[in-house]
Amino acid sequence: MKLKYCICCPIVAAFFLAACSSIQKTTLDPVVVTENASGVNYRGSYPLLTDIEHTKLDVSFNWDSAYVIGKATITARPYFYPSDHVILDANGFRLNSISLVTQDEKKPLRYTYNGKKIDIQLDKIYKRDQKFVLYIEYVAMPEKLKAGEDIASAGDRGIYFINKDGKDKTKPRQIWTQGETECNSTWFPTINGPQEKMTQDVNITVPNEYVTLSNGTLEYSSLNGNGTRTDSWRQEQPHSTYLTMLAVGNFAITKDTWRDKEVNYYTEPEFAPTAKLVFGKTPEMMEFFSEKLGVEYPWDKYSQIVVRDFVSGAMENTSASVFFEKMNMTAGEYLDENHEDIISHELFHQWFGDLVTAESWANLPLNESFATYGEYLWDEYKYGRETADVKGLEDMMAYLAGSRKKQVDLIRFDYSDREQMFDEVSYQKGGRILHMLRKVVGDEAFFKSLNLYLTSNKFQTAEVHDLRLAFEKISGQDLSWFFNQWFLASGHPVLNIQTSYDQVNKQAIITIQQKQDFEQTPLYRLPISIDIYSENNTERKEIVLTKQNQTFNFPYSSAPKLINVDAEKYLLAEKSEIKTLQEYVFQYLHAPLFMDRFEAILKLENMKKEVLARQTIIKALNDKNYVLRQLAVEFVNELEPAEKAGVYQQIKTMAVKDEVSHVRASAVKILAKAFTAENNEDVFKLTAQDKAPSVVKATNEAHQ
Q1: What is the pTM of this model?
Q2: pLDDT by residue (tens digit) across 444-465?
Q3: What is the share, in percent, of the chain residues with pLDDT greater than 70?
Q4: 580-704: in CATH 1.25.10.10
Q5: What is the Cα–Cα distance from 532 to 541, expressed in whole angstroms?
Q6: CA 20 to 30 Å from 570, out of 6, 159, 171, 230?
Q7: CA 546 to CA 66: how far, in whole Å?
Q8: Which residues of 192-214 are buried (b: 16+ CB within 10 A; e: fewer)?
Q9: Is 580 exposed, middle or buried (0-12, 13-18, 19+ CB in 10 A)?
């Protein structure tokens, strides 16, 4: 699943300039979360009692009642110990019959049912090498499930009938499912949890006018002669039961390909003309991830479908991801927000989460941290590190803002509700931790380790120690220290950094203190790069911070222009450091990374009374990174009158011609705010015709 965070530049600045941030968060995965209580039980892996090898479903629908009329044929065996009964999850069913399928007949079986679980008595004791086949006829009634009693919240119904009576003329009729975490048992009998993997056949009977989608490939369609059709979908590779999906509705299918596999985009017909604009980079993403990981996209096809009223941002069902309705975009809306992060996130899940699945919800970051880091990897490949580091900044901000409310381990076994695992720790913090791990071991070892992890555990489940062992096998290093402090502990470093130059002894001096709360947070081992700048030269020094207070001395012939601690800007940490005006200006002009310039501009904005600070921010109007251009535009009202006059024409040009719509919108806003004495109508006439809604909105507000 995808959590989405929308961050605007003024809030970015506020985050770093104040002790508390006011991050604007749009959460697309509504969940019911309860606080951890004292004495919470250990939340480990579910016991493996029965192994479902294959499930065949025959389903049709009663739209009026929102019922699923189903027949399930389940091939299973005892996992290890002999057993004469099976327990299946089935939430809110009416059970018509349960039988044992033999070569000659269906033999009725005795069972008990409490509304959530079926306890089936088999005809004998089966050993682990003996399969049995169950046949269950049932009616699932998801809309009768009561939130707070049968399910935790309305977002746990598992299957949803949208506009079921067709009375809402603004909304299409649709059916779609959402199985994570344990919701698929509301529409077919199964075993809940990420640990249970199976192959499947799903036969979906619908009125002829509707399109269907499920996992795997469409084997055939059969006309039933009564205005209905049955589509038969087959997935021959095993996946976790929560990843089973189906969708039904009036969808237009835009066809694409990757290598020899189908890549299809399902949208409402109105948005078919922009389907390739929105999703069309998918084949390139598939190629990039396949090459980078050394593991080819593992499933038979990849489809992406946009539905109405989805309960989260998106969901990575195997070979068939579901997206919320904001992915139905016009070409203009695409300029403001292309949602490539969501697309890359769900696609990366097809490896991390679907091919290899976290063996328990406690290990969820093995799914979500990787999918979040997949967003960074795609941006880095497609748009360069500058853009990727903006993504990294957003993730760091999201985590640090949330960390002020709670401190929890990344891999944690003490949650009171499994939905608590879907947070800024599992997503954003985990993504940043993977980036640090990449920097610690190096790119070659990082991606070879991921390859080993995927190939060793494909079509299986894994826990965090499987990941650590893969990295240790490839790198030859003991990485317990890294995994213990980042994956198995809470918090992050809080660093106080002081730099100086000893003129007498000709030494650059760096003192770093770890100031985090050591009762909750580890004393970290932190490999750190330090760049020491002269006028024409840069020297990199590598240190390892292991103590609460350490000082490092480096011979240097003259006073440095800048000592840049954490030169790779990869530490997930709160850092406090005081530099001079001249050092921040030098950092903006000469340090190579987006984060170098970003940190410098934020500090220079706090020195706005200084002419040199304002002059440097004015230079940022031409920065190659849109975030810094936008920060600079929004600072214009702080300039002196002569300085404002000097940038007026540039702001007018940016309002019309900047390549990023949000920068154009900010330029329009600042024209209306800072240049009220000027006649800006020539610009506003042009921006009123901009294709991006954000610019048009800013123009309309400028006239109010």
Answers
A1: 0.95
A2: 999 999 999 999 999 999 999 9
A3: 95
A4: yes
A5: 8
A6: 6
A7: 60
A8: bbbbbbbbbbbbbbbeeebebbb
A9: exposed
